[in-house]
Amino acid sequence: MDLHVVIGFGPAGAATARFLAGQGHSVRVVTRSGGRAEPGIEHVPLDAAAAGRLTEAARGAAAIHQCASPPYHRWTRDWPALAASVNQAAEATGAVLVMLGNLYGYGPVGGELTEDLPLAATGPKGRVRAELWERARALHEAGRIKAVEVRASDFFGPGVTDGGHLASRVVPRLLDGKPVSVLGDPDAPHSWTYLPDVARTMAQAAVLEEAWGRAWHVPTAPALSVREMTGKLAAQARVEPVPVRRLPPAVMRALSVVSPLLRELREIRYQFDRPFVVDSTAYREAFAAAATPLDEQVEATVDWWRARLAGN
């Protein structure tokens, strides 16, 4: 089997690395701090923005899976050097570059999100994400690298903790019977991409040559509101439904004073104030892929959180 390099070991990077290792591939994970080896997974401590060192770490790899992301409030400062280093490593080694992207680059859209929409975001984080793909695509079209971007909506599922809108701010509270406070309209339809489906799509895109050169949406279940998803999680956990409340704007402003994350979320509040629905038809039809059934997603998520909270 092949060597795959995974940059970053957050929820998506870890899930991708473990999926690839489960398929029998050798996996080399690149992070600043390194990590504990797992079966089939080697950890290499290095700064992925150091192009020469990253290139050496990627020698012989069939694919580079770019799952790393700078701290949210440092995107505009740190992304350019990281992206340039990853592109250089892909060009020097010939490895397929599989970029994990999100939906910020589209900006506010009046309807469902499809891959053929222009990357028209005007906010700084949206522009950064758009420019990352535009540069990689230009290099691909010039024949210098082989690149594909896999775009996901908000992550949900086992392994998603502090960064997820259906994670640490929701599941532990409903298991304790406590109200849940959320950003935006709790009844607006919203797409939630299941983390194992992200990992599977990252692995598939690396070997599907007909997928290269463009962006794809990860197969994602039909959109449901935060209130509906919280109800499904509660039903699976066999607990009473809990109140789901919108975080008052005044509280949001007050918390933003001390939380860099909440300050940065103001740019993408539109994703929670109104319907935010992803169309993943293109990938599903092109590669006969489907999202994991929603009931399975919910069951696995509740089981994972219960084990985590029990210390297992």
Describe the structure.
The longest helix has 19 residues, at 75-93. Helices cover 41% and strands 15% of the residues. α2 crosses α3 and α7 crosses α12. By secondary structure, the protein is α/β, with parallel strands linked by helices. The mean pLDDT is 94. The chain has twelve helices and eleven strands. A seven-stranded parallel β-sheet has the order 3-2-1-4-5-6-10, sandwiched between helices. It starts with a strand and ends with a helix.
Descriptive keywords:
alpha/beta, globular, seven-stranded parallel sheet, two-stranded parallel sheet, 312 residues
Give a brief outline of the structure.
The chain has 12 helices and 11 strands. With 312 residues, the chain is of the alpha/beta class.
Largest sheet: 7 strands, parallel
In N-to-C order, the SSE pattern is: EHEEHEHEHEEHEEHEHEHHHHH
Strand content: 15-25%
Helical proportion, percent range? 40-55%
| Count of DSSP strands | 11
Which secondary structure elements does this structure contain, and how are they paired or packed?
Blueprint: E1 3-7, H1 11-22, E2 26-31, E3 41-45, H2 51-57, E4 63-66, H3 75-93, E5 96-101, H4 124-141, E6 146-151, E7 154-156, H5 171-175, E8 180-182, E9 192-194, H6 195-207, E10 215-217, H7 226-237, E11 244-246, H8 249-256, H9 260-265, H10 270-273, H11 281-287, H12 294-309
Parallel strand pairs: 1-2, 1-4, 2-3, 4-5, 5-6, 6-10, 7-9, 8-11
Helix pairs in contact: 1-6, 2-3, 3-4, 7-12
